[in-house]
Amino acid sequence: MVTPVTLLAYAKCQTCTNAIKWLKSHGIEPEVRPIVDEPPTLEELSAWIPASGLGVRKWLNTSGQSYRAIGKPKVDAASDLEIIRWLTKDGKLVKRPVLVRGADVLVGFRPEAYEVLFL
After folding, report:
1. Terminus of the chain with fewer CB atoms < 10 Å: N or C?
2. What's the whole-model pTM score?
3. In Å, how far from its chain's centre is CA 49?
4. Which residues are in coiled coils (predicted)?
């Protein structure tokens, strides 16, 4: 049985587009979930953040407007739980794409990380 691949992505994000192209060029058809319309839930993030091996702050899209609207000082002062709550409310605040395959979770698109996972 093939483990399904879910990719939380934003349609206007070139990095997300590149990830989808990489997956499809390797015969992998991901279920693409629009991250702005369906941001990750608290339950998902509670499982995915530890599975990713990244700290909560590494899940922030620090180059986006949502991050700038909050402001670095407020982010720096926030607890991990507060940041997780922000991520559940604003998909544009989440670094993307987020790839979920079983217990494996990758944040951002690095072809070498995708190769390790799939090849």
Report:
1. N
2. 0.96
3. 10
4. none
Q: Is 102 helix (H, G, I), strand (E, B) or coil?
A: coil
Beta bridge partners of 32: 7
From residue 89, alpha-carbon distances to 58, 82, 110, 114 in Å are 17, 11, 26, 27
**What angle, rounded to 10 degrees, do the helices at 14-25 and 111-118 form?**
30
Instruction: Give the chain's domains with CATH numbers.
Output: 5-118 (3.40.30.10)
> Two tokens at 63?
């180059």
Q: Where are the beta strands (DSSP E) in 21-90?
A: 31-34
